[in-house]
Each structure stands twice: as structure tokens, then as C-alpha cells.
Amino acid sequence: MAAAALGAARGFDAISMADIGAEAGIVGSGVYRHFDSKTAILVAMADGVMDRLMTGAAEIISSSPGDRQRLSRLVRDHIEVALTDRDALAVYHREVRTLPEDERRRLSGAQRNYIEEWVHLLAPLRPDLADGEVRLAVHAAIGAIQSTLFFRSGLAHDRLTELLAVMAHDCLGISPAPVSDLALTN
């Protein structure tokens, strides 16, 4: 999305609807045919990424055979989203405080639901951890993955994916499921 690329590069406050239109190959006023405001664009970006994460999580949970496989697939899926939707996620993380309260609450609720999916999978795998410790491990793993939003390592996509997967699993305190177990089983 043009707004995500511009917002990530220059800051969302620094871009105008005309800038967004020009990046998208239309006049600035043409953007208003699709969005009422820059805030609406920001909400649409956040919704798109959150919907993608939640849809992926639902598919993974319904189609994977065990908690470790599910969690490893969630890690890989989150990495893929973070790498492919990097600009939209980075803009959202920087600008979430500027959203209207109702939108911020709604998106925070969706994030909490997503995190709960991870928590429910990790808890039985880590019976040595108290609930707060499980939640901390999940937040650390997701944070490790999302660190790539603000740091461009220059690593190739495959290498970055592998390193982030190892680091996220280390945060969770579990070994990754074998790659052969990560393919979809419908």
C-alpha cells in the first residue's frame, strides 16, 4: 500500500493525501473516493494486518496436529507477515496512539485475542511457567519477530526468517517443530 511505504519512510504525519495519491498513481483527491481521511487509511492498514494474522492463526490452529506444531507455524506465519507487511506494521506501531479511542480499543482487543492463541498453545508446553511467565514469553517472541520492523539487517529473506524463528522459539523456551511438520495438513 502506498500509504504504508510513505509512512514508514517519512512518518505518517509528514505525508499528505496528495503524497499518497501520487505514490498510488492517482491524484490526491482520488484517495478520498476510497478513504475519508488519513486516519481511515491507518485503520485500514492495521485492520488488514490484524485480519491476516487472525485468519492465519485460525487456519493453523484448525489444521495442525499438535500444540508445538501449531506454535511453530504461528511463529513462521508471524514472521512472514512481519516481513511482507513490514511498512504497514511499522506505521501502525508508531501511530497507534493517534487513532481514535474506539479504534484503538478495537484493535487492541484483536491483538489480545491473537496473543491468547499463542498463550493457550504455549502453556501446556511449558508447565514449568506461571501464567504471567507464559505471557511474557509470548510477548518476547512476538517482540523479537517485530524487531525487524525497525531494523533493516540486510539479510536475505530466507536467512532472516530462519534466524527470527530460532530467536522466537528461544524466547518461548521450546524447540521448533521439525520443518517437515510445518506443512499444512488439511
In words, what does this structure look like?
By secondary structure, the protein is mainly alpha-helical. The protein has helices at residues 2-10, 17-24, 28-31, 38-63, 67-84, 86-95, 101-125, 131-146, 157-172. It has 9 helices and no strands. Helix 5 (67-84) packs parallel to helix 8 (131-146), helix 7 (101-125) crosses helix 8 (131-146) and helix 8 runs antiparallel to helix 9. The two termini are 31 Å apart. The mean pLDDT is 89.
SSE layout and pairings?
Blueprint: H1 2-10, H2 17-24, H3 28-31, H4 38-63, H5 67-84, H6 86-95, H7 101-125, H8 131-146, H9 157-172
Helix pairs in contact: 1-6, 4-5, 4-6, 4-7, 5-7, 5-8, 5-9, 7-8, 8-9
Descriptive keywords:
mainly alpha, 9 helices, 186 residues, single chain
